[in-house]
Amino acid sequence: MAVMSSLRNKTHIILYTLLGAFLALIVFEWGMNFTGFTGKANLAGKINGKPIPISQYDEVYKAVTENFRRSTPGAELTPESELGLQEQAWNTVVDQTLLEQQFEKFGIALQDQEVVEAFDSPTPPMVIRQNFADPATGAVDRKKLESARHDPRNKELWVQIEKIVRQELKVNKLISALQTLGHVTEPELGDIVSRQFSRFSASFIPVPLSFAGVDSQFPVKDEEITKYYDAHKELFRQVPSRKADFVFFPLIPSSKDSLAVRTELETVRAEFASAVSDSSFVKVQSDRPTGINKVYSRADFSPEAGSALFNSSNLNPGTIVGPIADRGEYRLIKIRQASSAAQPVARASHILLRFNPASRDDVQKVKELSMFIYKQLQAGIPFEVLAKKYSADPGSAINGGDVGWFSKERMVPAFSAAVFSARPGAIVGPVQTQFGLHIIKVTGFDQTALLCSEIVRNIRPSSETVESERRQAMAFQLNAKEKGFDKSAASAKLVVNKSGEFGRRTPIAQIGYSDKIAAFAFKAAEGDLSDVIETEKGFYLMRLTAKNDVGYRLLDKDLKAMITAELVREKKGASLEKKLGAMKGSGVTLEKIAAANASFHVVSADSIRWSDGFIPGYGVDRPLVEAMSGLTAGKISAPVKTTEGYALVLLRGKVYPAGLNLAREKAALAPQLLRAKQEQLFAEYFASLRKNAKIEDLRP
Asked: What would the pLDDT profile of 207-226 be if each residue is shown by its tens digit?
């Protein structure tokens, strides 16, 4: 029964989920009557004319919501997340219906015997492989499978699993009906194997687009923008959208609200200390009922809260510490045991310097800046002062570079390695990561671990605070109606924010999902003011500024700026390509080209990998490595595209790893490549189905 218990625990994920290995769809199999009702009031929508009963949509939404609750225990289902789950449920219904229509179109049906044979197949359906395969070998444990199938206690569950299997088999048949043109050729196999396993040696001169000149040298005309927009219109397809200006009255707990929560926890302190069952007490009293017998380090708290707990004079079993304020909540902690953790946690501050590793100028500038910062540190200027001035990490710069306490795995490897190999007080670096260069000050280590149970209370605004904000929002609304939105905002010193474009059921910039705001926006006329809209975060006053129901993004100021930037980039690329092409010639070498241009430098590398685009000592540049894979050794290439611009490349050679069996690798790759082609074909086919389907969303 252990296997079936495990399977039963996962059914909220897989029971209603069709896992077509390649299909990025989540499709629910309900065994429902898809004909449904015909009255519009009872419809969730229509798909290619087929009515979707609201009962079908509601059942899918119920399952999606239950999945959310199980996968994120303790998480609150906010109005914003609820709207997101509604969209997930609707998209699931749409995808399921489109699939059913394709099954009907291609006459795809399934016999019971096919299902039986699928269970006994060497490669059984995915739901079976996921739950009955040996993790070490990948082989299905037939004994456990048969035991589970014939256990009478699993009868109902197995009926549901068979539904999943039937759906997967039908999808596989649909794939087969579509893949008549799918095949793999010997040249394709040879090319991919060659690229996958080859290691290149090359020298190249990377040249950023900036070498072509400043943007003002590449003017863009209005007609060019319009031509680009018309030629790429499909890129700008979108659902009907709205734009709005808004002012926001946030619900921020007052000091009185915070004190009230603290007082509440103080009143249960004695009971918590004497509670026979921490589990029962925490579940009743805490906003986070999972906080039972947890092992905490300083990394699990803000620096201030961590100090209040770990610096406590009494950490003996049974001691109650708190209430401690920590990131918008109060924590009352009951210590069960204090010990030494296997791995320490560290605290550090950093100064982040961003740069482009492909730009010689950027590399030189950041080196000079890091040296200048070190000189200031040596002169006695505090690290915190320099972090606030120079660090490109705004989140920590405001705190003097402090990133708080962290475990080794919480930071990127290079950063962690530098910190955990240093001593407290040491300044290390510069350390390079994908984020840039870090100058790091190690401020401490701690190896204390506490086994605790805790009661957590979120600090929420009181009804008094809510009503105060509501009155302010209503007063602004009255003023805005009388004196105008902008004038009233200026008079009250309120910031007028812009929403950007949003759909009826898409998140709104700075706001998130809000069905109340969407309901106003899709009923209002341009210029209309909303009533006071109450959300979990606070109160909003909206002014509708634009409507777009044409199905494409309008060619407005923002889009024109985006297209202009792309056209400038294209023009600079063409100019740069021409300039670099003119530098080639008989007897010319990369070294001579670099010597004639002060901003150029030659990069040489071996063991360059096509598989991930990695160039040792340089970084990842997939377009550049892709270009290398097709070059002839010993000859300077024409200008090739890179991530940041263009490059001139001299491929010196290609080698295979010792002992590589090309024939064996081709044989192993052939079924994978065929499958990839089939996946792409089906994905494109299904995307086209969805794009061209007539989908009527009639949900209230």
From this structure: 999 899 999 999 999 999 99
Instruction: Spell out the domain ranges in the chain.
Output: 2-178, 199-222+560-655, 241-250+463-548, 253-460
Q: Is the pLDDT assigned to residue 432 strictly greater than 80? A: yes
Does the model's pTM come out above 0.85?
Answer: no
* pLDDT per position as a tens digit, 392-419: 988 899 999 999 999 998 898 899 999 9
Percent of the chain at pLDDT > 70 equals 92
652-655 contacts at long range (C-beta below 8 A, 24 or more positions apart): 652/200, 652/201, 652/202, 652/203, 653/200, 653/201, 654/198, 654/199, 654/200, 654/201, 655/198, 655/199, 655/201
Torsion of CA 148, 149, 151, 152, to 10 degrees: 140
Q: Which range is least confidently modeled, 106-120, 576-590, 597-611, 619-633?
A: 106-120
pLDDT at 260 over 70: yes
Contacts of 228 (CB under 8 A, 6+ apart): 563, 566, 567
Distance CA 668, CA 674 (A): 11
Query: For residue 512, what is the DSSP state?
Result: B
Token pair belonging to 84: 């997101």
DSSP 55-83: HHHHHHHHHHHHHHHHHSTT----HHHHH
Phi and psi dihedrals of 462, rounded to 5?
-75, 170
Same CATH topology for 199-222+560-655 and 253-460: the answer is: yes
Question: Which amino acid is residue 4, in one-letter code?
Answer: M
Fold annotation for 241-250+463-548: Chitinase A; domain 3 (3.10.50)
665-682 pLDDT, tens digit each: 788 778 777 777 777 777
Order of all β-strands in the sheet with 619-620: 619-620, 614-615, 603-609, 199-208, 645-655, 640-641
3-state helix, strand, coil in the chain (%, to 5): 50, 20, 30
Say if residue 424's pLDDT is above 50. yes
Which CATH number applies to 199-222+560-655? 3.10.50
Question: How far is Cα 569 from Cα 218, in angstroms, rounded to an integer?
Answer: 9
As a dihedral over the C-alpha atoms of residue 663, residue 668, residue 669, residue 671, rounded to 10 degrees, the angle is: 130
Q: Which residue bears the tokens 């303790």?
A: 74
Beta strand 241-250 with 619-620: parallel, antiparallel or unpaired? unpaired
Residue 598 scores a pLDDT above 60: yes
Q: Rounded to whole angstroms, what are the CA distances from 275 to 70, 278, 320, 457?
A: 28, 6, 12, 18
The Cα–Cα gap between 65 and 78 comes to 12
**Range 253-460 has CATH code 3.10.50.40:** yes
